[in-house]
Amino acid sequence: MEKRHEISIVYSNGRFGAQIEYAFHVLLSALGVKHEITPLSALSHDYEKRKTLVISYGQERTEIAAQHQIHIYESNLFNDHYLGYDSMPEVPLSRFDDLPIIYQGNNKVEGHVRREEDVIETDIDIIASSFFMLTRYEETILDQRDKFDRFPATASLAYKERFLDYPIVNEYIELLWNWIDSFKLGFKRKALWGGKKFAVCLTHDVDRIRKFKIYPPLLTIKRLAVGRKDLGGILKVSSDWARCLMGKKVDPYNSFDYLLQLEASHGTKSTYFFLAGRSCRYDGDYTIKDLKIANLIKKLDKLEFEIALHASFQSFDSDKLLKRQKEGLEKLIGKEIVSSRQHFLRWETPNTWRVLENAGIQYDATLCFPEAEGFRCGFCLPYRPFDLHENSVMDIYELPLIVMDGGLYAYQNLSAEEGLQRVKKMIETVKNYGGVFTLLWHNSSFYELDYPAWPQIYGEILDYIDGQDAFSGTVKEIFEQSGVASTS
Questions:
Q1: CB distance 185 to 53 below 8 Å
Q2: CATH code linked to domain 198-211+251-482
Q3: Is the pLDDT score of 2 beyond 50?
Q4: Which is nearest to 211 in space by CA: 203, 198, 220?
Q5: What are the boundaries of each domain within the chain?
């Protein structure tokens, strides 16, 4: 019987079947379209007679007598140079209607897309291009790193070719859908968010809980004196310091009650990432063994906010550290910890995914460049990553982070109004693709004298989201709601 609503995929490069099948699965799973995939060498003699739509992938067009065919000409990623510098995309990139073509098929097509009756041919290799972005391929090839041993945004192809501000993999998916839908075969896209246009995931990294310690806030005073020449600010911060030490004022980094009330007023909940171990001086100013911190975590958990692991600075390549920290947090709240984010967004591709997987983490929400908002993975939906070293799909999901507050005010030194406009632009972009807008806002971002005009911005972002017809949920709830199909 003809499977009218199943797409058949055929590829000729059997040597890289795992990589090719992975990319096809991610793209078609995002559309929610049923599909089967078969190497050309495994086709039965009557295969083509049963198919309504075949998508073929290879250096040469596969002659299939199906009713409809899309052929994608393969580029030079999956060959002897794979994982070598010579496999990197050639720049400047070609473009199709302003869409960058990361990898272009070796069999060039005039205008990049050609249609003859029921056959579409294209040299826009959306398979290799998507694989490059989703796996963070370039981060395994290039050796550029910042002072914290992180791959910088400025070294990325997306930054250099000016597409970091939109999800290029989602755009490839839209292109693929347009080709599929043009045949009018009755395929339907999957609705992800219960009738909502897109999703929002609000998160908070708890790095520090105290602005004021026993010694005076000399760095803040110096900044106010030298940078702003703000005598009033100096007097204010000195007064705040003294009052906090005497217990007459709540420390400005202890913003949890404010966040609870604010998010409750918007009918939403967030995920809190807590550090559960200190391995170096960068790892916060608290321990979960402190009674006040333990009680705070238990309170948030009881109120049904998600408690997640903020894996320590040195844990990005240490199974031992991650497992110990996860177990400590689980022991505290008496339930499994399923979500995590790396402290300082410190990351090594693909090893950190493997470390997280080995520790039993199910969902990661790390991947954004610290110094630039946007789409590090080129994607704004949750997905399962691919291990470039093991040539296999991992048993973990990634929810790409889109905006971090510190990237706006600390790295880019934007004003509060400029930052708000950047956030709104990202929200609109994600909404356009029906994805997930994942936001990181630190509990320590609400002190006026540190970040003038910024304390009210988080509330303004929530106000803006209220009118956007979005599903809002914790990291765990996002995955549960989306029902993202397995790519294994």
A1: yes
A2: 3.20.20.370
A3: no
A4: 220
A5: 6-181, 198-211+251-482, 217-245
Please compute the mean of the pLDDT values over residues 336-356 and round it to a whole number.
Answer: 98
Nearest CA to 347 among 140, 141, 111, 94?
Answer: 140
Does the pLDDT value for residue 329 go beyond 90?
yes
As a whole-number percent, the residues of the chain with pLDDT over 90 amount to 82
**Range from 7-16, 25-34, 47-56, 389-398 carrying the lowest mean pLDDT:** 47-56
Contact 130, 381 (CB under 8 A): no
Give the sign of the dihedral formed by CA 185, CA 126, CA 477, CA 483: positive
Q: What is the rounded distance in angstroms from the CA atom of residue 36 to the CA atom of residue 357?
A: 27
Q: How far apart are CA 253 and CA 376, in angstroms?
A: 29
pLDDT tens profile 266-282: 999 999 999 999 888 99
Residue 365 CA to residue 282 CA, distance in Å, equals 20
Q: Looking at residues 318-339, what average pLDDT do you find?
A: 97
Average pLDDT over residues 285-289: 94
Q: What strands, in cross-sheet order, belong to the sheet with 6-11?
A: 34-39, 6-11, 53-58, 68-73, 119-122, 113-116
pLDDT of residue 82: 98
Q: Residue 487: pLDDT above 60?
A: no
CA distance 346 to 43: 44
Residue from 386, 388, 387, 384 nearest 396 by CA: 384
Q: In the structure encoding, which two tokens stand for residue 488, read together? A: 């294994």
